[in-house]
Structure formats: C-alpha cells, structure tokens
Prior knowledge:
- By secondary structure, the protein is of the alpha/beta class.
- It has three domains: about 5-65 and about 310-490, Glucose-6-phosphate isomerase like protein, domain 1 (Rossmann fold); about 95-290, Rossmann fold (3-Layer(aba) Sandwich); about 510-540, no CATH class.
- It is built from 21 helices and 13 strands.
- The strands form three sheets. The chain has a six-stranded mixed beta sheet with strand order 1-2-13-12-10-11, with helices on both faces.
- Helix 4 (about 55-65) packs across helix 14, helix 14 packs across helix 19 (about 470-490) and helix 15 (about 345-360) packs parallel to helix 19.
- It is globular, with a radius of gyration of 25 Å.
- Bound molecules: 6-O-phosphono-beta-D-fructofuranose.
- 6-O-phosphono-beta-D-fructofuranose binds near residues 151 and 206.
Amino acid sequence: MLINKKLIWKVLKNHFNELKDIHIKTLFNKGHRFKFFSREAVGITLDFSKQKISLKTLNLLLELAKEAEVSKAINKLMSGNYINVTENRHVLHTALRSNKKAYIELNGKNIIPQIHASLNKMSNIVNLLNYGKWKGVNGKIITDVVNIGVGGSDLGPKMISMALRGFMSADICNINVHFASTIDGTQLFDILPNLNPDTTLFIYSSKSFTTIDTQINADTALIWLKNNLNKPEDIIKKHHFIGVSTNTDKMTKWGLNKENQLEFLDEVGGRYSLWGAIGLIIAIRIGMKNFLRLLSGASNMDEHFRSASLENNLPVILALIGIWNINFLNIPSHVVLPYDGHLKFLPSYLQQLEMESNGKSITNDSQLVDYFTCPIIWGEVGPNGQHAFYQLLHQGTQSVSCDFIVSINPYHEIKPEYLRDRLNMQHLLVLANCFAQSRILMLGNNDNSHKHYFGNKPSSTILLNTISPEIIGSLIALYEHKVFVQGIIWGINSFDQWGVELGKKIANETYSIMTSGHGADILDDSSSNLIKYVWNNIKN
Ligand code: F6P
C-alpha cells in the first residue's frame, strides 16, 4: 500500500493545515525549542528547532515511521539482509565498518573475515606507498596517486580526502592525490603535464569495471605511461596501476595481476563504497590509522542507528524532517551548506547519495507513487554561497529547506603556529555567519519593500564537535541512514539505480552513429540535426 493511503498520512495532512499559516518565529514563543527539538549522538548535535514543526508534528512523524515499520527495516539493514530486491542483492555497506568480532552472513558464510582480509591487503598497499616502498618501473618512489573513477568511485573518496586533508600523519610520506572522473578527459589532461610518470601511480577504481568513463581515462593514462617509460605494458601495469573492483575477471583481463587488485563485494552499492577498497585513495592520503578511525566513526553512528529509540535517533529524525518538508510543506529543493572549506565536495557527494538512491517513482511493489520522493539536493560551501545564491534563499520565490553544517572546533593542527590565533578567530567568524544565516532565514525582518526578509524558511543545523576522521565517518553514515529511512517510508528501493542505465546504452548507440557517419536520420529531429551540425562543423 502506498504510504499516503495510510491514515497517518491524512492525519499529518490535516495537521499541516493547522500549521501552514503560522510563521516559524511564532513557534518560538512557547520557549525551550532547542531543548525539545535537538538531539545529540556520537559527537554530532542536530538542531531542528528552526523547522516548521510543533511537538505534535514530531509525534505524528514518529507515528509515520512506526507505520512504515522503520525499526524492523533498520534491523534488516544492519544484519545485511536481502533488501535490494530489484537488483537481487543483499545490502552490505555497513558490514565494511563492522569490527572483527561481528558476524554477518551472506550465502551461509560469515563475510566479516573476508572484509578484514581486504582491509589488510589495502593496508599493505597503503603502507608501501606511505613509507616510500612502492617504486615505479625505474626504481623511483611513488609521490603522486591519481584516482580514476566516476560516481561512487570518485565522489566519496574525493569528498573525504578533502574533508580530512589535515590528517596526514607527520611520519608518513606526503603523497599527492588527484582525481580524474570526466569522460572528456579534461581533468586527466590537466593533471598529466604536472606529473612525473616515473613517480605516478593510478588507481583504476570501478565497481563494475565496465564504466566507459573510467575505462577510457585508464587507457589514456596507460598510453601516457607507455610513451614516457619505455617499458613493456605488463611491467608498467605492475608498478603503476592498482585496480579496485568487484569484477576480478575484468581486472585480470585488463592485465592487472592479483597483487595489484583490490576486490570488494557486489552487495556494496557504488555510492556506499568509500568504506572499503574504493577508499584506497583516502587511506593513502590520510594514512591507514586515520582511515580506520573514519570507519569507527561510521560504526558509532551505525550503533546509534541500530539501538536508539526512534525519537532519539538522529538519522530517523533527519529523515522525518525531510519528509515533512517535501511531502507536507511541498518544498522541492534542499540545500546543503557546509561552513568549512574542506567540506566543499560534500554537496556533490550527497547529491549522488540522495538523488541516485531516492530519485524514484516506482515502489517496491511496482506501484507508481503519487507523492514526492527525493527533493533536488544541491549546495556549496556556506560562506561562499552567502555571496552568491543566498539572495534567493532569503528573498526568492522558490522554497528551499537547508542543512547548515559546521564544527564547533577548528582543526587541531595549523602551520605555521603563529597563525593559530587567526585560525581561531576566523573559525568564530564562520560560526557566527552560520548561526546568523539560519536565524535570519527563520525570523525574517520588518523592513519594507526591497529590504524585507520574509523569514519562515526552515533549516536544521548540524553541529560537529570537531572535524576528525571519526566525526566525518559518523556524519556520512548519518546521511546514508537518513536516505535509507526515507526510502523505507516512501516504499522505494534506495539501493538500485536503473535510471542511469538507459543513458549508457543510448550513449553507446549515439557514439556508433557519430563515428560511422550514418544512422542519424532515424533519430528524432533535434538529435539528428545536432549530430549533423557537429559533423559539418567539427574541426578534426
Ligand atoms: O552510472 C551510475 C553508476 O553506476 C553509479 O551508481 C556508480 O557509482 C558509478 O556509475 C560508477 O560505477 P563503477 O564504479 O562501476 O564504475
């Protein structure tokens, strides 16, 4: 049954009518909103008091979660159950951060030892690189690593590598990391001239090992190495490539020997994969110790998600607030605003996590939904956004809900030391800006005409105790679980992504037409003329 056919949905709709004309600022008249509408767990505080909700709203939303059997679903997820039915798979990303003593079964076998064996292999590779023991074909120490991957094989690793860039240990080599994802090669072509082929290693990162974007970039990187190193291809691959995939056959076929392959489970979705072998570049960047701290932070959030009551459960609350905003307040757009320059890739990472997971219209029992599912997710580093698009947030005609994300404390380490006071001062400034923006969005002002701010715009503030591998791990797991709970309530499978497959097929067909020089006429008038226009105007 579609969730909106349940009685609780109707009750929530009626309740919305009670609240719809009330300005959020008047909800503050009752006092103690922060006390009633904030929750804390594992170093993260969620303040949702600036949302357009009352205690009654919260209770009804919790009823909704109960109706949708969210607790049962959480147990299934956390025990690695068969829940990705449309892809005929179990869901096992949380197993990647489980400790050695955990027991999670797949096909009658505990998969935890396999996961830890893969982590050990990864750790060996990371240590060889971090201690200057991995050499290129000419005996030179590797100084630069390029991750070639796209989607989940790029966004998560890039986001975390940037978020935790201050966590490189002093006792290991400072390896430069680079990312190339785009099929046009522009990123790779930009990077290559600044790299020394003797000291560069590429990670060929692709869950399927069939993604054309990644294949094409890896082949280009190989051509570059072959041209510069003058050694046989297999020797070059041994010294300058590591493959990360679930598809060992394809890795072997491409010429990677077993030592250069890191394997992971099919049951880990691409956008949920940074916690294992796909996170290799993260571990190279921040060291294996810090990578394990990242996993333990995610595991802390998993434990909270598994054990906290629904009303105290951070991911559940975040999910319910999102549902309230999109399904009842009809706010179709949600902006993520990290107040930290190092979290600049968080919005694009969350775009894939949320939109690829929940941007769906067909339920698990094949019904077409008649309610909104995932909103449009977008975002930018908050302080920069203030000088760009906040105008629309404050005075535009579109409704947008916001997540502000900021840490209480800045990085512990800062060099040179004499800049510490400046860092602390700048950090207070960023906190002040963050709090000011959410306050204005909620309150508005009484000025007239062009200076009028309406206020009444809902936001949540996610306060991190600090930026550390553990807290970042917890933060990302918080969002993963939020997405899961929303998928459960909407009745959709958050773990497939059929909506990207047709594009791949048609792109292949279009490429054949474009390279063969015929076949354009059978396409629609726009596509066929675009192709012909290119044929007539392309320079080479
Ligand atoms: O096309 C979408 C997608 O399949 C994502 O789900 C995935 O993260 C990305 O492509 C990359 O896939 P792969 O890691 O298999 O190359």
